[in-house]
Amino acid sequence: MYRFGSKFRKYSIRSIDCGVIPGYSDGNFDSFVADCQPASSALPDASNQCGVAPVANFGNSPHISTSTAWHKDRHVRRSSPRLMRKHLEITPNLEPLFGTRDENLRLMEDALHARIDLVSDAVMVEGSEDAIARVERIFQDYEALRRQGISLQNGELNGMLRLVTADPTVSLRSLGEAGKQRSAGIKRMVQPRSINQRLYVEAIEQSDMVFGIGPAGTGKTYLAVAMGAAALLAKKISRIVLVRPAVEAGERLGFLPGTLQEKVDPYLRPLYDALYDLLEPERVDKMLERNVIEVAPLAFMRGRTLNDAFIIMDEAQNTTSEQMKMFLTRMGNNAKAVITGDITQIDLPNPRKSGLVEAINILEGVDGIRFIRFEDGDVVRHHLVQRIIRAYEGFGRQRELPLEIDGEPEVRFSQPQ
Fold first, then answer.
1. DSSP state of 102
2. Which candidate in 189, 295, 368, 372 could, as Cys together with 200 as Cys, close a disulfide (CB 3.0–4.6 Å)?
3. Helix, strand, or coil here: 186?
4. How far apart are CA 32 and CA 76, in angstroms?
5. In angstroms, how far is CA 287 from the centroid of its own chain?
């Protein structure tokens, strides 16, 4: 037998035939005292039958009443998940589903508590009935998507499998078909890779104003640009407006040469990168030339009304309170706004004056506005990025801990203002 995934140690082939006691909770043996008797010769060899001695020393157990009559010939049965096996047919071009070094198989095994092996001309799945059914559905959905011509890259597929294994109501096929419909005319499929990313995409589709707040690398900006490009190509809107505060990250570059657009281009480079990744470069250049994709410096937004537009403001944590209020009131008819930012990376002289932080406190709960918060588990960049974010968060919490040294007044470490 050839093993694709990691070694399987979660199940034992031997079954223990001990039973369910009224009020007994799995793993709690403190309140139950019984002498185990050897199995009689009449019992099957594959089972281990436990006889229960007459109740004498149960005391004040909350689980078993002392008035209950127990006899030696009564056998208590402890149920365990019933393991099943099923052989799934191997279809052509199934290998991409396994992932690099079988990482997708290991993901399914760990999340669904199943074992997946390749035996001669079939895939053997071992686990509970529900786990086998879900694994089989994933294989069937992948084959259905392949026949529809939907090709999934390993990164996209791994993220989709995480969603499918985390939520039984989500299917691989529905995610793939929704991503294809959403990505018409785009080079890459617009596909969320985590639960929060899925909520983010759904919020953009359903609401006119969405705040995406979270650490770096969680896909806030990329997904916003992708949804804007998809809406433009579907003719739901007539233009995309890109906005970003012109604030340097801890350094001063001075005056930049060139036209107004050339001056602000360095600040909008992440948005451009996403556009060129999603659309053909020639197409992006034409849209920029015709102002179908417009670069609008935040400082010059006052007095404008943006109709029939998909507006994206990136790095919103670096706006002042006045700038944020001014931007949020630029929306016109058939307009949609997505505001993204990371409140842990504020480059303003006074971080407490961030317009994004104030907007969160003021607009939370307003009808028609959605807030999606990302976590370090949503990071889709290099795996080290997730660890770096966690390390910095832990360090930040330590700096804010109160300390008392030799009876001296309490000292609190905090970030400099």
1. G
2. 372
3. coil
4. 12
5. 32
